[in-house]
Design brief:
Length: about 210
């Protein structure tokens, strides 16, 4: 079994940027995280260090519990709205926050994708499918569902690299599909066999 990070390493991981995974620490701490596969050193100057998907999982798992699927972002940390949350603010501050998060994600794509490609999802997005798809939708101005109301909802699926996007309005659903496709996701429209409800299946495009 892989040993858990030391207390000092855990502090470095916990302090990572919640979106990009950028790390700050001593050279020895960063090198140790790279050696354990929890971080990587970017090959381009200034050679910043970032969490790997495994490092993100460690950061999002309580230290006293075994590794489990990533938990929702804690209060005070940016989290895209996946739909179904309680009504929340749509103030200019929130819009700026969403815009900044999306621009940060595009920069993460540039820094971590082969060839600096910004037109397709990166490893962080493939490790956080629901949050990544929701960010693309919210940044494009789509309205998330609040409570039991209308709007988009992004949910996990049994498929390892796909999310389902639900939206009662078919026109709005297809607009969500177009947004995800433009953001580098492969999308297809389906119908639930029981309720005949339309939904979109989306997965990150690799090339």
């Amino acid at each position: 079994m892989t040993r858990p990070p030391t207390t000092a390493q855990r502090r470095v991981i916990d302090a990572a940027d919640p979106l990009t995974g950028r790390l700050r620490g001593t050279d020895a701490q960063l090198a140790a995280l790279v050696k354990r596969g929890l971080a990587f050193r970017h090959p381009r100057p200034p050679h910043e260090h970032f969490l790997t998907p495994a490092g993100h999982r460690v950061r999002e798992t309580p230290a006293e519990e075994p590794a489990q699927p990533p938990a929702p972002a804690e209060s005070g940390v940016f989290a895209a709205r996946v739909g179904g949350e309680e009504p929340s603010d749509t103030t200019p501050a929130r819009l700026r926050e969403v815009h900044g998060a999306w621009q940060g994600l595009l920069e993460l794509r540039r820094m971590t994708n082969p060839g600096g490609a910004r037109d397709r999802p990166c490893a962080w997005e493939r490790a956080h499918l629901v949050r990544a798809a929701a960010l693309a939708l919210e940044a494009a101005g789509h309205r998330p569902a609040t409570g039991d109301g209308d709007g988009y909802r992004v949910r996990t699926t049994p498929q390892p690299e796909a999310v389902a996007v639900h939206q009662p309005d078919v026109g709005a659903l297809r607009a969500c599909a177009a947004t995800l496709e433009e953001a580098g996701w492969q999308v297809s429209e389906h119908t639930e066999p029981r309720g005949r409800t339309r939904y979109v299946l989306a997965s990150p495009r690799r090339a």
